[in-house]
């Protein structure tokens, strides 16, 4: 039995969306996007399999693990492919964008994975990855916890301008509760902010990308945490109410999303306030121009949890806006009512889960669990529930990856993107035409087989940012003033009148 | 009682060198180099103190530790001093070079430390440090264990051309015995050498430096090991004979120094053969030109042990050559006969020892020792004995350094150089005019107080040497062909005829 399989959450109510946010012409789209050999696995089988995974804590040896005879040809190809493009061609998907965004719950295009969908998923995953790559983790920096670049430079610095989006706003978060390691803290006294962290950004597709994808796409990318094992230990397993019904979500996630304090510079308004204000402004601006608009919210780990809270709030606030969540390695966020409400409001969620990754099993399963605690755990399992469609990835499917126990590696977003890039279907081996640069996997972990000779955790600054000045002394240069976080430029825009937005110029001529 | 003190080994025979290799005019030199307030501590006091150190495993709280009220002024000065020179001025020491090189066993110029001597010590320490800074530790590199640059580029790449020396040869070492972590090994199959490591270099002063220091100075710098704790565990406590008398030295050190194998590319001759051949050639060349010549051998940790073996062999082989050893954090190497022979041959040894560093206590004391094992240990203590003069440094003396337990930090060569730069005498606090860049201390450890905001272990390549090519793929670029180790250029020079040496051009016009 193949373990890498497409399952939707077994608690999901039958597919009858009350709100159809997508207004799609489904028949026409299916004609193009349906795969001839698509299959719909028996629902009971899927449920049994899912329970079996829980019972065995997903450590049952995979039959596919035996396929892992290391493919030297593949490696030789890898070396020869140093001069090939890292992405598939950008095809015009404007006619099919609703289905790709999940209007039909990604039925028939996940297994096998439709190439157009794969490309869009990787695009959103790269936005989520950007929130890690540009983050200042240096606890000796006065800017620890901020983004190293201003929003106009972000994509250029990370080589992401090719995706055709423009960042319109940075989002900052704080928390009123003690969440060790959820937020980064500078060791130094005169820091840019004692309380806040850069937690993500809002971006919007430029004109060219908008033409290609058939609508103006607003993206929100949420940053995750470096040490999910540690934040997990601090889970309070306490559910706080959200919205007007029975929906409840995990206390810590909601605290990050909604905390604010008048005494701070960057969180006089909460992350929630900041992101919603920006999204509402953008939606209004483009709708008034007569454009079709979509909202895609993405994040990895904690970022996936924040994405879901954000989607919930956006769906409550903005009617008739197609909202999709693309999450990677995200934990459970709320109770069944939360899931049901999201579903009823037509929010489409696609969750990517590496089956060896523990984070998506949280809250609900503890590390080092013994089976005697299973009863207690199923209790939690039924309290916190996953939302939407799931695509299961398997570390064993890639000939490039080590399969030994490696929790940070299994959870790493770059591992996810690599596996998505190589995923064809549950039935087929790793995609030989996978184009994403394999070396990226080892940026912050040690997952690639030694034969590839890619150093582990190689993503690092020369001399940690120290430079030798003309006198021969090693100093940390002052940050470019443009890149110093400025709460005035981000936060003090209280006017809601929709004059010409400041980002408009860059959209017109990116 | 000040714990930072100048002691000579209590087993040393009275100062009556049988060979005077220095031909110095001592009276004249003392007139200049004597410090007015120099003192000669009572010999019995020193012995008692030394034993007391051993008994308390040197963990007795230092009275000077209480002086460590963190000096914020000093730090402010440090920040303001980013644009000051990192070295004292180069003064002409040509008249006094013999005393600086130890012809009088550094009597009267160690406490207080004479500024001319300090400057020379730091110069030699920088040569030893170069063997770490340029070493390729990347186990995924096919050149792991080699120097990253060819010898013509080495000093330029490391900013050491200002010292006025030219590298004439690289030295490679192997070992016939298993010494885990003593030598670095590449993980890859097609490596430059399966057996050998770059273990140091021979350099010679250029004309300008030669004029300043009063003689043509040949330097041999030996590389140490990264993990002395680990090599220590593998100490076999086995002494091998050396020379023609009763001298014996530690088996592992001698194996590194003298192993060779016809099946290798870089060690068809041993490190001993390579270095002696080069030194003999240089000595002969410059003596035939009528120049005065000195040999200075330096090294840190294992490198200090190899320096002593090298000095022993050079003294046996080359008559009337002033030979000095400047070692940092070096372990004991041989028995009393070895020490006595070195002394009789007129080899001058100056050992720098940080009192919190454990490595100089090896072999002879084990980590985590309990006092009940002391009897057994004193046995070893009397077998392995230190050689020459010692200058004790104290981590607590520097306001820049953390004092918490930090074995790698206490042993780091950059910590040694920092403490030497700040050392005035046993009676005075850290030198306020110390010029060496404090940031260097944290290159490969975490010893600087947090207030300085210098990242720990900051000496690193951008992205571990990976670069993004024009196709957006991260690749490790091929090494510059000039920097690929070539056994032909280093080793295949079997002719001993002293025609024009290949390095001569660069010496004449450096």
Automatic annotation (TrEMBL), chains A, B:
Official protein name in the record: Fungal lipase-type domain-containing protein
All residue ranges annotated as the Fungal lipase-type domain in the record: 219-365
Domain of life: Eukaryota
SUPFAM superfamilies named among the record's database cross-references: alpha/beta-Hydrolases
Gene Ontology MF: a single term: galactolipase activity
Keyword Hydrolase: yes
Keyword terms of this UniProt record: Chloroplast, Hydrolase, Lipid degradation, Lipid metabolism, Plastid, Transit peptide
One GO term of the biological process aspect: lipid catabolic process
One Gene Ontology CC term in the entry: chloroplast
Subcellular location field: Plastid, Chloroplast
Family: Belongs to the AB hydrolase superfamily. Lipase family.
Native source organism of the sequence: Canavalia gladiata (Sword bean)
Pfam families linked to this entry: Lipase_3
């Amino acid at each position: 039995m193949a373990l890498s399989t497409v399952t939707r959450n077994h608690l999901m109510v039958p597919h009858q969306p009350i709100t159809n946010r997508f207004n799609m012409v489904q028949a026409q789209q299916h004609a193009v996007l349906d795969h001839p050999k698509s299959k719909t696995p028996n629902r009971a089988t899927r449920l049994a399999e899912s329970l079996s995974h829980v019972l065995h804590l997903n450590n049952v040896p995979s039959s596919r693990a035996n396929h892992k005879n290391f493919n030297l040809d593949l490696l030789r190809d890898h070396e020869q492919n140093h001069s090939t493009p890292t992405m598939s061609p950008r095809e015009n998907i404007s006619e099919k964008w609703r289905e790709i965004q999940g209007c039909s719950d990604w039925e028939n295009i996940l297994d096998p994975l439709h190439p157009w969908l794969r490309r869009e998923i990787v695009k959103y995953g790269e936005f989520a990855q950007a929130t890690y790559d540009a983050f200042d983790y240096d606890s000796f920096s006065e800017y620890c916890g901020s983004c190293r670049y201003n929003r106009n430079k972000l994509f250029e610095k990370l080589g992401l301008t090719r995706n055709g989006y423009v960042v319109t706003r940075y989002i900052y978060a704080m928390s009123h509760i003690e969440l060790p390691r959820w937020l980064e803290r500078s060791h130094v006294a005169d820091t840019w902010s004692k309380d806040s962290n850069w937690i993500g950004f809002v971006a919007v597709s430029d004109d060219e990308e908008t033409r290609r994808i058939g609508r103006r796409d607003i993206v929100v990318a949420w940053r995750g945490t470096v040490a999910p094992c540690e934040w997990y230990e601090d889970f309070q397993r306490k559910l706080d109410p959200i919205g007007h019904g029975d929906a409840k979500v995990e206390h810590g996630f909601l605290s990050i999303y909604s905390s604010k304090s008048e005494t701070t510079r960057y969180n006089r308004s909460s992350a929630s306030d900041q992101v919603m204000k920006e999204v509402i402004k953008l939606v209004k601006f483009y709708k008034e121009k007569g454009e079709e608009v979509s909202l895609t919210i993405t994040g990895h780990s904690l970022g996936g949890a924040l994405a879901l809270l954000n989607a919930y709030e956006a769906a409550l606030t903005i009617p008739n806006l197609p909202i999709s969540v693309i999450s990677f390695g995200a934990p459970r966020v709320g109770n069944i009512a939360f899931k049901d409400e999201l579903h009823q409001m037509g929010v489409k969620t696609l969750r990517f889960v590496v089956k060896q990754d523990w984070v998506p099993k949280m809250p609900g399963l503890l590390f080092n669990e013994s089976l005697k605690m299973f009863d207690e755990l199923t209790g939690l399992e039924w309290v916190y529930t996953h939302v939407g469609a799931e695509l299961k990835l398997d570390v064993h499917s890639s000939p490039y990856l080590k399969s030994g126990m490696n929790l940070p590696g299994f959870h790493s977003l770059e591992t996810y993107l690599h596996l998505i890039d190589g995923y064809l279907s549950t039935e087929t081996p790793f995609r030989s035409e996978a184009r994403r640069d394999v070396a990226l996997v080892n940026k912050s972990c040690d997952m690639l087989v030694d034969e590839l000779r890619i150093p582990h955790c190689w993503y690092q600054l020369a001399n940690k940012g120290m430079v030798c000045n003309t006198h021969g002394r090693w100093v940390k240069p002052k940050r470019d003033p443009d890149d110093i976080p400025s709460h005035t430029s981000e936060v003090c825009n209280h006017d809601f009148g929709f004059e010409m937005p400041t980002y408009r110029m860059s959209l017109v001529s990116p």
